[in-house]
Amino acid sequence: MMVVARFLGKRQAALNMVVISLRTLGAGTLLDRFYLKVGVSATAIMGTAKELLSGDLKVFLWFYCFFLCYTKFSSGKRDAVVQITTKIKG
Length: 90
What we know:
Blueprint: H1 2-8, H2 10-38, H3 55-89
């Protein structure tokens, strides 16, 4: 924080800290509301977190993770193929 205070000034650094804390509180409040809407408890006992995710949400998250991985790795392969073909043509 000292580096930020030197770079931006003490006033701006303090304002930055206030904004970060307000955003953190807002994100926590939104997460609590999401948990209430879904109907799960926001607290969990150590070692038992099965109640946090419903079955439908787990399936959605698996597909979402698969989609993210697929797009990441497939786009890299496409870029490599494009680079190779342009080198061959050029």
